[in-house]
Specification:
This protein is an alpha/beta fold. It folds into two domains: about 170 residues, Glutaconate Coenzyme A-transferase (3-Layer(aba) Sandwich), CATH 3.40.1080; about 230 residues, Acetyl-CoA hydrolase/transferase C-terminal domain (Glutaconate Coenzyme A-transferase). Helix content is about 25%, strand content about 20%. It is built from 14 helices and 24 strands. The strands form five sheets. It has a nine-stranded mixed beta sheet with strand order 8-13-12-11-10-14-19-23-24, with helices on both faces. Strands 1-9-7-6-2-3-4-5 form an eight-stranded parallel beta sheet, sandwiched between helices. A three-stranded mixed beta sheet has the order 16-15-22, covered by helices on one side. A hairpin with a 6-residue loop joins β20 and β21. α8 packs across α9 and α13 packs antiparallel against α14. The longest helix has 11 residues.
């Protein structure tokens, strides 16, 4: 029987046991009143663990590690403060693996905290902002605590949440967290023009996080009948749907609907998805499933990277010795686009990082971090200087094409370095 509490009577010491692992909805799906209360009460519980997704609040902070061991699949967003302090343990896994890791208890979740939209007339709550791996976590957790937020968008998903799924409910009315992407600069707009020129009417799109994918989407205003099958969506999807660019009419699977695992945007995205059956939220087990992805035709995958070497190896995890990215779903989607009839596996990034004397090339002869995507899965690399299509290309041609899209200031250096004997996969 579900128990209703208010925040003042919520005593985590009576719910969470020492040694437990707690998880909550990530990014804008974070149940902030619950997470803040948990941090404030941490000393009364004893030492426990938290598995974080992407964080877009300042709720988990380094000082909280006096009682809490934090881990995550990523170092993005608010997690970066924990990374800098050396207080975040990384689980290097593909995003598609998370549901099975949770169900098998290799990633054991004892307590799950959710932000839900209020129940409808049938008594069904909605996951609202994020569906993704939360279904697996809800089934696996010993205790499920729900913030039922009056202002959370009610969205359509593959499974409703019933009171029988919940142990505790705390009712609130607050604006959910928002993410507003920065306005693209000249570099992002140049990259977007190159990539957009390859995307045809009727394509189905997937895109990663950040300003770059949003900039590319923003350059597609003159396309028709685009579709969406993506781990996440942002504000530009709402804008392009309202303008008639995204109709999902030509999708080979799930025609007529945008399919996503979660959304990360502002109130206008929340308003757009509220009670909108044209946007269907699905679990990670569906959105990232290889068998599902194999059925998508004209699948255009738009992801970013920290750096790419001259053979097409991609580092999307580590910069400057710090874990700031993720393995994520990029490889799952890039492989699907490589197999898709008419597909485009695109990784887009600025050609340089930093400024002034600290400026460096992001097209490199050797990665400074791990290989997040192997060169055998490399497809199309885009910078503001053009497109390098590496599909079917041997090392010598890859080297030529990659140097051509590097910043002109670094091309001579890349030529010289790549000619040295012993450079893996490049030198003679």
């Amino acid at each position: 029987m579900v128990q209703e509490l208010d925040l003042r009577s919520l005593d985590f010491a009576g719910i969470i046991r020492p040694g437990d692992t707690v998880m909550w909805g990530q990014a804008t799906a974070e149940p902030v009143p619950l997470t803040q209360a948990l941090m404030a009460q941490r000393h009364s519980i004893g030492r426990f663990s938290v598995f974080l997704g992407m964080t877009h609040s300042d709720t988990p902070r380094p000082e909280h590690t006096d009682c809490i061991a934090f881990s995550s699949y990523c170092g993005t967003g608010g997690n970066r403060a924990l990374v800098k302090a050396g207080k975040l343990d990384i689980l290097p896994c593909h995003y598609s693996q998370l549901p099975e890791l949770i169900r098998s208890e290799r990633l054991k979740i004892d307590v799950l905290m959710l932000q839900l939209a209020p129940a409808d007339r049938d008594g069904h709550y909605s996951f609202g902002i994020a569906h993704e791996f939360l279904i697996a976590a809800m089934d696996a957790a010993r205790v499920v605590i729900a913030e039922v937020n009056e202002q959370a968008p009610w969205t359509y998903g593959e499974r409703p949440v019933r009171e029988a799924d919940l142990d505790y409910i705390v009712r609130t009315s607050r604006a959910p967290l928002e993410i507003v992407q920065p306005v693209p600069g000249d570099t992002e707009r140049a990259i977007a023009r190159h990539v957009a020129a390859m995307i045809e009417d009727g394509a189905t799109l997937q895109f990663g996080l950040g300003a770059m994918p949003e900039a590319i989407l923003g350059a597609l205003a003159d396309r028709r009948d685009l579709g969406i099958h993506s781990g996440t969506i942002g504000d530009t999807v709402a804008d392009l749907t309202r303008s008639g660019v995204i109709t999902n009419a030509r999708k080979s699977i799930d025609p007529g609907v945008t399919v996503t695992g979660m959304m990360m945007g502002s109130k206008r995205l929340h308003d757009f998805t509220h009670r909108n059956p044209g946007v269907q939220f699905r679990s990670t087990a569906y959105v990232h499933n290889a068998d599902v992805l194999a059925r998508i035709e004209r699948f255009v995958v738009l992801n970013t990277a920290i750096e790419v070497d001259l053979t097409g190896q991609i580092n999307a995890e580590v910069a400057g010795g710090m874990y700031i990215g993720t393995v994520g779903g990029a490889l799952d989607f890039l492989r699907a686009a490589n197999r898709s009839r008419g597909g485009l596996p695109v990784v887009a990034l600025p050609s340089t990082a930093g400024r002034g004397h600290k400026r460096s090339s992001r097209i490199v002869t050797g990665l400074s971090g791990p290989v997040s995507t192997p060169r055998s899965d490399a497809g199309i690399i885009a910078t503001e200087h053009g497109i390098a299509d590496l599909r079917g290309m041997p090392f010598s041609e890859r080297r030529r094409r990659m140097i051509a899209i590097a910043h002109p200031d670094f091309r001579e250096h890349l030529e010289r370095e790549s000619a040295r004997p012993g450079v893996p996969g490049i030198g003679s």
